[in-house]
Design brief:
Helix content is about 35%, strand content about 20%. It is of the alpha/beta class.
């Protein structure tokens, strides 16, 4: 079989691209273009070991290479930056070394692959971030199928009934992350006017997306931007400053800001630490619509007008940040990632990644708890498919 190469992810759409090389001489071709940072040849690496190096035309780009060798067939995957130029440089180098470029297809799937693997491969092309791509790639390589097969083994040869319930619950919990791999999470920035919401939005986005001006009420509509935080896909939303107003247009923006806060996965409630806490700040701190929030004490680059413990005593987490200078942004980004995905799936774990996967798991659990072993097996067998 000739050596073939395909880009599994959507070039230019995410933080990472995955390039797969397969065929009898795949290891030799990949080794010819891979320049490791340290250590010997890629051919000498154990299967599954990640190797850091460079690949591509000229100086190339930084990549992570791994040998998979599925079913006795040599397979190598190279993970590189998702930009068009970086991906094309790596692919072109592999083509010049003897590979033939093909489009991603079901033929790329592991032997014995079924419905799950095909769906994962289809979603992988649209993966927006590195974490999304890594999890979907694991499912395309059979991670979820293997866990389902373990659950389906007869008692004594696999998991007992109570362990099966626990295993199904674990898969369902992972599905809360898996079903967000493409759509991502919504993070809303809220607060009263002139506390630095738009400046914080721009700092997190990495460029000036929202208008910043000292006049209160400049932001009247929701401004959205999709990005990656801690490797997860996130849509940031900057909202109007919340205050009492007689301006009907500003009032509409404030109503929308409240609705956005009520439906957010996480609210960044911004307070101005350079001024005493205002009554509007205290109302927002007590607002029941902001059940999941991080309090951002902005403008920490100037003298503080109130201690952090004044808010911490209410049980809320407070982080001191300067959206102007960037101070405190790194801990804030880490905290956002931890709040959105407190327990990320381990590498190689089975992760349901479509809503219908969770529906099937729920039906299987109902059958198991009802003592309907046959119904349980039929329900769970529906997920892997063929």
């Amino acid at each position: 079989m000739e050596v073939q190469v395909a880009v599994l992810t959507g070039s230019g759409r995410g933080a990472v691209a995955v390039v797969r090389v397969w065929g009898r001489d795949a290891g030799t071709v990949a080794d010819a273009v891979f320049r490791p940072v340290r250590g010997g040849s890629l051919l000498e690496s154990p299967v599954g070991r990640l190797r850091l190096g460079r690949a591509g035309v000229g100086r190339g780009d930084e990549v992570v290479a791994v040998r998979l060798d599925e079913g006795g067939e040599p397979v190598v995957e190279l993970q590189c930056h998702g930009g068009v130029a970086a991906v094309e440089s790596v692919v072109q180098a592999l083509v010049e070394a003897g590979a033939r470029r093909v489009e991603p297809a079901v033929d790329l799937l592991p032997r014995g692959a079924g419905r799950i693997e095909a769906e994962a491969m289809a979603d992988l092309v649209r993966a927006p971030t590195v974490c999304s791509a890594e999890i979907l790639l694991d499912q395309a390589n059979g991670a979820l199928r293997r866990e389902l097969e373990e659950i389906l083994r007869p008692p004594g040869g696999g998991l007992e009934v109570w362990d099966r319930r626990a295993a199904l619950a674990t898969l369902a919990a992972r599905g809360a992350v898996g079903t967000r791999l493409l759509s991502g999470w919504k993070v809303v920035i809220a607060g009263r006017p002139n506390v630095g919401k738009s400046r914080l939005f721009n700092a997190l986005a990495g460029f000036d997306r929202s208008i910043v001006h000292p006049t209160p009420g400049v932001t009247r509509d929701v401004v959205a931007f999709r990005t990656a935080i801690s490797g997860w896909p996130v849509e940031l939303r900057d909202t109007a400053g919340q205050r009492e107003t007689d301006d009907p247009i500003e009032g509409q923006g404030i109503d929308r800001a409240r609705r956005e806060s009520g439906t957010a996965d996480l609210v960044l409630l911004v307070l101005d630490r350079s001024e005493p806490l205002a009554p509007a700040d205290r109302r927002l701190l007590a607002a029941p619509t902001m059940s999941r929030r991080l309090v951002v004490a902005n403008k920490c680059d100037v003298p503080a007008a109130w201690p952090l413990r004044e808010v911490e005593e209410t049980g809320l987490c407070v982080l001191a940040v300067s959206a102007e200078t960037g101070e405190g942004l790194v801990p804030l980004i880490a905290a956002i990632g931890d709040r959105l995905v407190p327990d990320p799936p381990a590498p190689g774990a089975g992760v349901p990644f479509r809503p219908e996967h969770l529906e099937i798991l729920a039906r299987a659990r109902e059958k198991l708890e009802a003592g309907d072993g046959g119904g349980f097996e039929r329900s769970l067998t529906e997920l892997p498919g063929e």
